[in-house]
Amino acid sequence: MLRAAAYHAKQALTVPQYYGRGLLKVFTTDPVFLWAQAIAFKTLVTLLPLILLAVGIFGRVLRQEDAFTTVAQFLRGFLPPTQSDGLVELVLQLQEASGAITTFGAIFFIATVITMFATLRYVVGAAMGESRHQMRSILGGYAFDLRMVAQVGSLFLLSFGITTAARFLSARSGDLAARAGLDPGFVGTATGGLLQAVTFLVPYVLTVGMLAQLYYFVPRPKPPKRSALAGAAVAAILFELAKNGFAYYATYVADFDRYAQSGEGLGGLGGAFGLILAFVFWVYLSGLILVAGAVVAALHERRVRPRKSRLRKMWSRKPGEFRKHRERVEAEAAEAVHESVHESVGNVARAEPSAAAEVSGAAPGGDALPEGAVRDGGPVPASS
Predict the structure, then answer these.
(1) Model confidence at 169: pLDDT above 80
(2) Helix, coil or strand: residue 261
(3) Is residue 3 part of a domain?
């Protein structure tokens, strides 16, 4: 019985050891931290046009108190308090110019967000192994990035609509309960609990949805859906843990707010510099979590469906990049063999004249062959 318990304990530890070793190998051999830096830079560049576009489109809505509270709560659900409060304040400051910068923000945002998704595509494809991100042409890659912008944007709009509907029901629960003849207190408590559940679950579900799309659609060939969901679920859990941990770190350890004090050398920038530092550090940490989720998805794929068999099936079944690559390699190999054979034939042809001279009628120096020697198939006549 003890042997069976030890066996089951060993089997239970096999799975975490498998994923732990895989993550350790990727983080120690691949430029993961450089990938996270690239994501942080592209996200920082995309942040301003994103805010400009959001303020321009929802400028009229943001001037209404209830809607603005919903948007502020939406931002606070995805970022630590140190950053979300600063972003909400920045949105308030940009409201006055919302009508004039809509077009500029839209154009600049589309251009920058496509480049950001190109970076995400490269990082996710590289983290999931080999060259799974290089199977698209340049134009095909940009078209794919635009498609991912639309898909991820639709998730944001859906979550925004769900949050808005939950806040509307919570605010009007008393009137609706009175019209329906129900207890307003009970209905208000129920809708308040529903609002808290939505506020807690929507960011997690949205994070899983966005990451699962990246892990499933970016690599070619596509991994199993359950592998993409497994990586996205792990990354979303790490994201929530990191958000709470970073909030504590930014408040009590790093103290980014000290840059807003007048005694500091950068105090003239107000809280903007501290906000930028905190935001870049948070996005850098999020980039590491993104890579970790991609690695988990790839490890899960290799565990449930070996990648070699998948590539072999696509190689023989679907013409395209794989078959073109195989034909190109075969052509280069055939050309190399042909050149080698041609060079060998040339060497043999150059060696034949010297061999013929050695078996000719005269020895080197012009001396006659000895009597009885064979020349051109007949004996050499004896001299008189």
Answers:
(1) no
(2) coil
(3) no
- Within the chain, where are the H helices? 2-29, 32-57, 59-62, 65-78, 81-94, 102-127, 138-171, 173-180, 184-217, 225-248, 272-304, 307-317, 321-358
At 97, the pLDDT band (50, 70, 90 cuts) reads low
pTM (two decimals):
0.63
Cα distances (angstroms) measured from residue 312 to each of 183, 204, 316, 317, 330: 64, 36, 6, 8, 17
> CA torsion angle for 310, 230, 150, 69 (degrees, to 10)?
180
Rounded Cα distance between 125 and 35, Å, is 11
Higher-pLDDT residue of 290 and 280 is: 290
Q: How many structural domains is the chain composed of?
A: 1
Tokens 């609990």, residue? 193
Is 316 inside any structural domain? no
The CA angle 98-67-161, to the nearest 5 degrees, is 105
d(CA 291, CA 282): 14
CB 162 within 8 A of CB 202: yes
Full domain range(s) for residue 83: 15-305
Task: Please name which of 230, 232, 161, 173 lies closest in space to residue 202, comparing C-alpha atoms.
Answer: 161
Looking up tokens 């400051």, which residue turns up? 93
Longest dimension (CA), the chain: 147
The residue assigned the tokens 């995309």 is 46
User: Residue 127: which of 298, 309, 311 has the closest Cα?
Assistant: 298
Confidence class for position 82, pLDDT limits 50, 70, 90: low
How many angstroms separate the CA atoms of 79 and 243, rounded? 7
Q: What is the DSSP letter of 259?
A: G
Q: Which of 315, 272, 324, 300 is nearest to 44 (CA)?
A: 272
The gap between the terminal CA atoms of the chain, to the nearest Å, is 111
Residue 138 within any structural domain of the chain: yes
* Residue 136 counted as domain residue: yes
